Amino acid sequence: MQIIDSIQAMKSLVREVRSKGQTIGFVPTMGYLHQGHLTLMRTAKEKCNFVVASIFVNPLQFGVGEDFEEYPRDLGRDSKLAEEAGVDVIFAPTVKEMYPKGYSTFVEEERITDKLCGESRPGHFKGVTTVVTKLFNIVQPDLAFFGQKDAQQSLVLKKMVKDLNMNLEIQVLPTVREEDGLAMSSRNSYLNSSERQSALLLSKSLNMAQNLIEAGERRVAEIKKAIHKLITQDTLARIDYVEILSLPDLEEVEFLEGSSLIAMAVFIGNTRLIDNLVVEV
Ligand code: PAF
After folding, report:
1. pLDDT, tens digit, for every residue of 227-245?
2. Model pLDDT, residue 88
3. For residue 205, what are the domain limits?
4. How far apart are CA 68 and CA 60, in angstroms?
């Protein structure tokens, strides 16, 4: 497996792969890989001839006071794991390589980025759509793989690909969870042992919501109230948002109907975790 840090070298490798008629699968990441990422990589390998994974902690998608500096980084560990998962090349550019002095072009989706994480983290999705567009242009994948844990990100990127007629397909794979239900995330590494326990509240409250819905509850306000009640019992937990919105447009609804997303962001101590559940009624 190769590790490439220059855009020019990555583009010339992509040209070579394409000239052999091979398909390219792409898994963009910020590194500190976990089973969620590795599942995306294995699936990419099953579906495409050649797999590129990027590892780039993108400063553009972090707000002031967020964890850009502390975000865990370990390229040595990540390369071993990615190679075992079947990745052919890791693209790991520096910030200077991606955003050289004078960089001034951005990509922005304007309809579904003003809610959920977009509301709590202004500018976050502009950073995501900009870096992912750059990565797509460099890697030119046929298929790109993302995890359902970042539900809004996947919806925004699908919209971007459609709106801008990008020449690839986005595939979204289910959230990978620890045995006790915690959604895998590189940020779980920030949690101490009591926080790790409290972090289970996210998946527990989603399971509780699922049970309520299976028992016939359709009132969005009641489901949100029950989730708030469960989470706020824990003194380590502070809710950023709990929302139930229609899919795929992320519109507010009073009653569940068709496809909806129950999405939440909760601070456990200083660590902001997200999780979600898609419900069909
Ligand atoms: O989901 C992530 O890890 C990041 O938002 C992404 C898609 C790699 C863009 O930096």
Report:
1. 999 999 999 999 999 999 9
2. 98
3. 186-280
4. 9
User: 30: Cβ below 6 Å to ligand 1?
Assistant: yes
**Whether this model's pTM surpasses 0.85:** yes
Tell me: do 93 and 130 sit in the same domain.
yes
pLDDT bracket for residue 221 (50, 70, 90): very high
* Burial call 83-114: b when 16+ CB within 10 Å, e when fewer: bebbbbbbbbbeeeebbeeeeeeebebeebbe
Among protein residues, the one with the nearest Cα to ligand 1's atom 2 is 29
Asked whether residue 210 is assigned to any structural domain, the reply reads yes
CATH number where 195 lies: 3.30.1300.10
Chosen domain end from 173, 204, 223: 173
Mutational test site, ligand 1, from 32, 54, 55, 61, max ligand atoms within 8 Å of CB: 61
Are 193 and 169 members of one domain?
no
Residues 6+ apart with CB under 8 A from 134: 98
